[in-house]
TrEMBL record:
GO biological process: fatty acid beta-oxidation
Organism: Chanos chanos
Protein name: Delta(3,5)-Delta(2,4)-dienoyl-CoA isomerase, mitochondrial
Source species taxonomy: Eukaryota, Metazoa, Chordata, Craniata, Vertebrata
Gene coding for it: ech1
Family per similarity comment: Belongs to the enoyl-CoA hydratase/isomerase family.
Main subcellular location: other
Keyword set, alphabetical order: Acetylation, Fatty acid metabolism, Isomerase, Lipid metabolism, Peroxisome
Reactions mediated catalytically: (3E,5Z)-octadienoyl-CoA = (2E,4E)-octadienoyl-CoA; (3E,5Z,8Z,11Z,14Z)-eicosapentaenoyl-CoA = (2E,4E,8Z,11Z,14Z)-eicosapentaenoyl-CoA
Length: 309
């Protein structure tokens, strides 16, 4: 793992810090974490990685660097055996203003190529690359909790729909803004939002009109599972939740994420078949015996020392 974590002091503190004390160490006043220029990456408590979108002066607008840094970051997290859960949030006034409207012209809208076929091929390649920025979150086997405050616009909705658990503050609002900039949203919202929100009609309304959806409606339609009064409370809640996940068997947790996503995209019969194949090896883990013994002894699962995965 090559991240230079800010919170080196935290490493030697006890595994299960109360979330509220850890949240103070999450603030990234000092800027992005090298080699990244748009992300601050830290380890606020053991086994939990915090990824913060960090261009607060530009409202965390997603510039060219961001689109590749997210891929690099989540590919590293996927391989990091010290990390068992992830929290994503935004620095400054809001979660994100979506795609950087200054950069879009120099990348997506200038694909290169000397005839229609080649230009089209290049546009397709660019769109696929942008899609990977959020698909990488879904492909990462570690569960990702996203914490949204203030605005979550355009690409922000693409991002959060690829996460496993969504939390927000009372002042949060969500906007599928793409039609307002002449685009059909093409990096995940149209594909994932209908699987997150039960009402197809509501998804269509949001995507076709670009109207803002506020936190109360986001909660009632199931886009977020919890609403917090302010950002501090939300970050404490996000850390606590991530800590709960990180304390359990990584074999069980990662297998659960992978199979939940598989079952979303397949029939019940196919997903049961996949599950049986998955668990024919994973059930052989020591974690099952360790967890079962802890349950018999009425111990908290977080007290069980699981090997790294
Ligand atoms: C293949 C590609 C697929 C991806 C598609 C994605 C599509 C989308 O994301 S569509 C959504 C695009 N975003 C927007 O339309 C939002 C535009 N911004 C705003 O409406 C406001 O800035 C906002 C409500 C977010 C914040 O308002 P506030 O008053 O708090 O701040 P401002 O003074 O407006 O902005 C502060 C500085 O940030 C810069 N900025 C804000 N948003 C963007 C952006 N999207 N792209 C680039 N820069 C942005 C703004 O210019 C200010 O900069 P400066 O003047 O240098 O201080």
């Amino acid at each position: 793992m090559t991240f230079i974590f800010r919170s080196t002091l935290m490493r030697n503190r006890s595994f299960w810090l109360p979330a509220i004390s850890a949240v103070r160490t999450m603030s990234s006043q000092t800027g992005p974490t090298p080699p990244f220029s748009t992300l601050s990456v830290s380890r606020p408590v053991n086994a939990v990685t915090h990824v913060e979108l960090h261009r607060p002066e530009k409202r965390n607008a997603m510039n060219r660097a961001f689109w590749s840094e997210m891929v690099e970051c989540f590919n590293q997290i996927a391989l990091d055996s010290e990390c068992r859960a992830v929290v994503v949030s935004g620095a400054g006034k809001m979660f994100t203003a979506g795609i950087d409207l200054m950069d879009i012209a120099s990348d997506v809208l200038q694909p290169g190529g000397d005839d229609t076929a080649r230009i089209s091929w290049n546009i397709r390649r660019i769109i696929s690359k942008y899609q990977e920025t959020f698909s990488v979150i879904e492909k990462c086997p570690k569960p990702v909790v996203v914490a949204v405050h203030g605005a979550c616009i355009g690409g922000g909705v693409d991002l959060i729909t690829a996460c496993d658990i969504r939390l927000c503050t009372q002042d949060a609002w969500f906007q599928v803004k793409e039609v307002d900039i002449g685009l059909a949203a093409d990096v995940g919202t149209l594909q994932r939002l209908p699987k997150v929100i039960g009402s197809r009609s509501l998804v269509n309304e949001l995507a076709l009109t670009a109207r803002k959806m506020y936190s109360d409606e986001a909660k009632s339609c199931g886009l977020v599972s919890r609403v917090f009064p302010d950002k501090d409370a939300m970050m404490a809640g996000a850390l606590e939740l991530a800590g709960e996940i990180a304390g359990r068997s990584p074999v069980a947790v990662q297998g659960t994420k992978i199979n939940l996503i598989y079952s979303r995209d397949h029939s019940v019969a196919e997903a049961l078949d996949y599950m049986a194949t998955w668990n024919m090896s994973m059930l052989q883990t020591d974690d099952v015996m360790k967890s079962a013994q802890a349950a018999m002894e009425k111990k908290n699962p977080k007290e069980v020392p699981f090997s790294k995965l």
